[in-house]
Amino acid sequence: MFSIKNLFRKRTGAQPEKKIEFLKKQLKKSQERVEKAQLRKQRLRNYLERAGLETSHKKLSKIFFNIAILINLSISAYLIYYFSVTYGITWGTVVASMAVLWLLVFFLLIFALWIFFYVAVDLKIFKRKLDIEDVLPDFLQLTASNINAGMTIDRALWFAVRPRFGVLAKEIETIAKETMSGADLKAALEKFAAKYDSIILKRSVSMINEGIQAGGKIGELLNRIALDIQEQKSMMREMSANVTTYVIFITFATICAAPFLFSMSGVLIQVVGTLGSTLGSSANVAVGSGIPLSFSGTGVTQSDFRIFAITSLVMTSTMSAMMISIIKKGNVKFGIKYIPIFIGVSLTLYIVTQSLAGKLMSLFF
Question: Is 65 within 8 Å of 110 (Cβ atoms)?
Fold first, then answer.
């Protein structure tokens, strides 16, 4: 019997049901890709909100793209100048270099810029969390005073805001706006606590919500929470003071002892090389019983050792700063700001000590 379905089978060579099922699968996959892209953008938006930044994924991508292009253009100009001056420029060399540069280095630059951006944003979020924890006890005590004066909890939170509270003041203003628009205070507080990875803040918000739900004396509860936070900070300061000896030892070994020893080792290599070249001017040197002593061959060069020393100092300074941060504060993020200081001081001391020791040794050899 002739039908449109049979005609479709003859012309396409496939069953309509399978084709429709295939199209449905493709449509579902495309929808999933769109949803994943939207979810990534939403996560980035929430991540930037935690850092107090107001920008979009599209704007950031455009900025990083332009920066990568400028860096690649600078590198391209340098390579063309270098090849033309050193080797005599050839179009094959230029084309090969530019192809590698724009196909590989460009994407590596984009990736590195995103990594640095996420690290910077994460550090900013961490600093905002510390700022909130520092002023949270004072804010809770002011809120408790307002509640004891007869205010409701939402009005007490609003009237406790002070400019000196900084990030916390802005977050409380956001909570107040949400509650005034009809949102639940408990949900707004939980949303605020979930934005920051702070155990102190989450516990405080949890206790406040439980107190509101139980209908107890919120003012006394807030005062007690504030006192507990202050006692916890006092204990952390005492623990930090007890490990000061370890911090001093690690700091001295990193920025004083290690650069000095590396510089002395470099000077020793230079002295041994000078003596070897002097004594090795003859074929062999007879020693005592007639055993020949030869100074031929190559060992560790001064330039190779300098590269090793600088690399070791950079790695040691980085790890030491992180170790000190963990010992004193219990978190590695505290030590990131000390890494450039440790690296700068250790390398400066290494260069100065090596220069002075080299001049001193030149007086004797």
Answer: yes
Cβ-contact 258, 311 below 8 angstroms: no
Tokens of 136: 């949270």
The yes-or-no verdict on residue 137 having pLDDT over 60 is yes
* Number of C-beta neighbours around residue 156 at 10 A: 21
Listed as own residue / partner, the contacts of 81-90 with beta carbons closer than 8 Å and 24 or more positions apart are none
Q: C-alpha angle 137/223/228, rounded to 5°? A: 60
Give the confidence band of 8 by pLDDT, cuts at 50, 70, 90: very low
Whole-Å CA distances, 13 to 6, 9, 18, 24, 215: 10, 5, 11, 19, 73
DSSP states of 28-46 as a string? HHHHHHHHHHHHHHHHHHH
* Other beta carbons less than 10 A from residue 229's beta carbon: 20
Residue 207 DSSP code: H
Q: Give the SS3 label for residue 296.
A: coil
10 half-sphere exposure, CB direction, 13 A CA radius: 6
* CA proximity to 354, closest of 230, 258, 219: 258
For residue 363, what are the contacts with CB-CB under 8 A and spacing of at least 6? none
User: Residue ranges of the domains in the chain?
Assistant: 57-123, 128-240, 244-276+300-362
In angstroms, rounded to a whole number, what is the distance separating the alpha carbons of residues 334 and 322?
8
In Å, what is the CA distance from 98 to each residue of 74, 80, 91, 113?
A: 12, 9, 10, 21
CB atoms within 10 A of CB 342: 24
Beta bridge partners of residue 291, listed in sequence order: 287
Cβ–Cβ under 8 Å, residues 159 and 145: no
Amino acid at site 28: K
The closest alpha carbon to 325, from 311, 336, 310, belongs to 336
**pLDDT (tens digit per residue) in 236-264:** 777 777 778 888 888 888 888 888 888 88
SS3 161: coil
β-strand pairing of 291-293 with 285-287: antiparallel
Sign, Cα dihedral of 145, 151, 156, 162: negative
pLDDT tens digits, one per residue of 149-185: 888 887 888 888 888 888 888 888 888 888 877 778 8
Can you read off the two tokens belonging to residue 181?
A: 């628009």
